[in-house]
Write a structure and sequence with these properties.
741 residues, alpha/beta, Rossmann fold, 3 domains, eight-stranded mixed sheet, six-stranded parallel sheet, 36 helices, 14 strands
């Protein structure tokens, strides 16, 4: 399971719960841990009691550690200046937030959390790279609210959309607006806590005191009462025309829009403003209402909104009369949707009161399909497919180990002190050449304290150096399963200096690692990739064939996973890059084994993958780093076109290669710190491919015309052209083929 930092635009204790609190609850219910961060304040404070009270409450909490409010949920209030989104104030806010959030994460033991943000200006406050993944959940056009720095929010939102791994939106119009900036932008409309609001029909709820003396029929609105959302002039006309109906408004007035004026409505005897009510009591208000209202304006804000109250009303079994905003149009069969005009609303309410509209069962059935549990489950499925969620749960990430250790340091410090002494002693023995003794001392400590992290990390390199690869694997699996760490395995795979010097020892090591069932799939697969290249160097054909079979298993798994083509994980954990690495390794194996037919098959599989692959859909840095291997795989079709004299196959292959070359030359890759010259390689390879165009359909092929292309396919720097050519006998003519046999 994962740890989430939910960066909200609403404080946890706000009486009107929104998406932010509900998503935090549903994430925790799904088994994840959540740190809920109270609002940073997008606008400057207003003069008045509401903002002053909110600031005073915040000051009372900012110096406290995260407080546990529910199972799996902690709330933290950051010390920031509201509205400080520029200049010196922004600098201070960034530093304060980074420091406070770092300490809060340490307190809770959130080592690699996923950021789930509702704040469109997140990029101004936080470095997204400090999180293992990132989600922007856009639930409103915040910039269209009164008093907001609209241009600054819009610019920041565009940048945030480009930077995060996925964007979720709550209306089709929001999705249409933001998918221009991110290929993974999904629409998940607002939903309801069905069990909570379902109490309005499934339980006998006492009538709220505020409704007891009011005459029927009762028409109710629940939510923030703000002039920029509610069509107050229409309501004034409607109320004056229908004195026989009682209108009840539940919620704060003018909290977001101070210009809100309800004085005319207040003066009407059939209108009652009862203020905000506790969330727990809202079902009772709906249980005793006859019709639920959503009298919204048509404007930029409402065009992009999906009212949370819609499915809450339906879950409570109420007939709904609402303005026909775009997000609600698909549900016209279960609600009365009309233009925000008094006559239209009056006619719709009259029909609802007469029992018209969709039957109760139909309304409840639709509401049952739109719950927080179902929506969050679907969102998490998207994150899993994109690779944003951790590959495997680390069982040791359960309840705040770091925080527990801070509180119980008096019990833990003897073990910690002894571990430091033991590690120092082992280091001293290493310096005098007594490596075996150092290894045994650390093993003995682990027998006594098996979960001691420093000793476990010190053991692994010594086990590798001692050649005890089974013990090294056991310790790596322990480190991964109980601590979620993979540090030393990463070194072994991607830092050659960490491996044993003897080639046979390397083969034995990676054979051991590749058979693990506990380590993450990506690292087991990379172990098989590294093993394959070591076996190729050894010339052991039996092991090469075994390696081919093992890699094929991983390739089939990756090809069948729809998330491979859209993986947002970084370079070493990215599934698309892993699949391409497997293709490239299989190509090298088939060349070493002389299997031209199998080589051509891998080339076609790579081409098929590329035809359904958008390089912009995966992690940006990774999409650049896989350039060389991807082009090496795709160029196999060029060799086949050369062999067969097939201009059509050549043109198809050339177009795929050109797509990759164009992608890696985009300006967004200018700042890449990749060591290899991917752009230079792409240019050189495409140049060689272009030089063959006129020769493909010709009657004769001269072998030397593709020598440079063959050299570019083989990435082994130790091989000269004389060492490369014998790997390609079927493409070099009869003389070369006979020489190579």
């Amino acid at each position: 399971m994962a740890d989430f930092v939910v960066l909200s635009t609403a404080d946890w204790d706000h009486p009107l719960w929104t998406n932010k609190q509900h998503v935090a609850v549903s994430l925790a219910a799904a088994g994840h841990r959540v740190m809920y961060v109270d609002s940073l304040g997008l606008r400057a404070p207003r003069v008045g009691g509401a903002d002053r009270g909110r600031i005073l409450r915040r000051l009372g909490r900012v110096l406290r550690p995260p407080r546990r409010v529910r199972e799996g949920i902690w709330v933290w209030s950051p010390l920031v200046l509201p509205g400080g989104t520029g200049g010196l104030v922004l600098i201070l806010n960034r530093k304060a937030l980074a420091l406070g959030l770092g300490l809060a994460r340490l307190w809770l033991g959130f080592r690699h959390p996923i950021l789930w943000t509702y704040n469109p200006m997140t990029g101004r406050y936080l470095a997204l790279g400090s999180f293992s993944g990132s989600v922007y959940h856009c639930v409103d056009r915040i910039q269209d609210q009164p008093g907001m720095p609209a241009e600054r929010i819009s610019a920041s939102e565009r940048q945030l959309c480009r930077a995060v791994d996925v964007v979720f939106t709550t209306s089709p119009d929001l999705q249409a607006a933001l998918e221009k900036f991110h290929p993974h932008t999904y629409f998940f409309g607002n939903v309801a806590d069905q069990r909570h609001f379902g109490m309005a029909i499934h339980e006998s709820l006492q009538c709220p005191q505020g409704l007891v003396s009011l005459p029927s029929p009762l028409l109710i609105f629940i939510g923030a009462i703000d002039a920029y959302k509610l069509h107050l002039p229409m309501l004034e006309t409607l109320v004056s025309r229908t004195p026989q109906w009682t209108y009840v408004f539940v919620g704060p007035i003018g909290e977001t829009d101070p210009s809100t004026d309800v004085s005319i409505l207040r003066a009407s005897s059939n209108v009652h403003f009862v203020g905000p009510q506790p969330y727990q009591e809202l079902p009772a208000w709906l249980a005793h209402a006859d019709v639920a209202l959503l009298p919204l304006r048509h404007n930029g804000y409402t065009r992009n909104m999906f009212p949370m109250k819609f499915f809450e009303y339906l879950s409570a079994g109420r007939s709904v009369v609402a303005t026909s905003i775009p997000a609600l149009l698909p549900y016209a069969n279960v609600a009365f949707l009309c233009e925000p005009e008094a006559s239209a609303f009056q006619a719709a309410i009259a029909m609802a009161l007469d029992g018209g509209g969709a039957p109760l069962d139909e309304r409840l059935s639709l509401a049952a399909q739109h719950t927080y549990e179902a929506r969050t489950s679907s969102m998490l499925s998207v994150l899993a497919e994109l690779g944003v969620l951790p590959e495997t749960r680390a069982t040791g990430s359960s309840p705040a180990r770091a925080r527990v250790r801070v509180r119980r340091f008096r019990h833990y410090w003897p073990e910690w002190l002894l571990s430091q002494v033991t590690i120092s002693l082992a280091g001293g023995m290493d310096r005098i050449g007594s490596h075996g003794r150092a290894f045994e001392i650390l093993k003995a400590f682990r027998c006594r304290w098996p979960r001691n992290l420093p000793v476990l990390r010190a053991l692994i390199p010594r086990a590798v150096k001692a050649g005890d690869f089974d013990y090294a694997l056991e310790a790596m699996e322990d480190l991964w399963v109980n601590n979620g760490r993979i540090d030393y395995l990463r070194k072994l795979l991607f830092r050659r200096g960490s491996r044993p010097e003897d080639p046979q020892q390397q083969i034995a090591l990676f054979e051991t690692l590749a058979r693990s069932v506990e380590l993450p799939m990506t690292y087991r697969c990379y172990s098989q990739v590294v093993l394959a290249y070591r076996i190729i160097d050894s010339g052991d054909q039996i092991r090469m064939r075994q390696s081919t079979v093992a890699l094929e298993s991983f390739v089939r798994q990756l090809e069948s996973d729809p998330g491979t083509r859209i993986c947002r994980r970084g370079n070493r954990s990215n599934r698309a890059k892993l699949l391409i690495s497997c293709y490239a390794t299989l190509i090298r194996l088939h060349l070493a084994l002389g299997n031209r037919e199998e080589l051509a098959v891998v080339g076609r599989r790579a081409a098929n993958f590329m035809d359904g692959f958008d390089l912009n859909a995966i992690d940006t840095d990774t999409s650049f780093r896989l350039t060389r291997n991807l082009m090496r795989c795709l160029v196999i079709d060029v060799l086949e076109a050369w062999r067969l004299g097939d201009p059509f196959l050549y043109q198809q292959a050339r177009q795929r290669l050109a797509r990759v070359e164009k992608h890696c030359n985009q300006s967004l890759h200018d700042a890449s710190n990749a060591q290899e010259d991917h752009r230079g390689f792409a240019k050189a390879l495409l140049k060689e491919v272009d030089s063959l165009e006129e020769l493909i359909a010709g009657p004769h092929h001269e072998p030397e015309q593709i020598h440079e292309l063959l050299r570019l396919i083989i990435k082994n720097k130790g091989l000269s052209l004389d060492g490369v050519l014998p790997l390609f006998p079927d493409y070099l003519g009869t003389t070369i083929a006979e020489t190579c046999q």
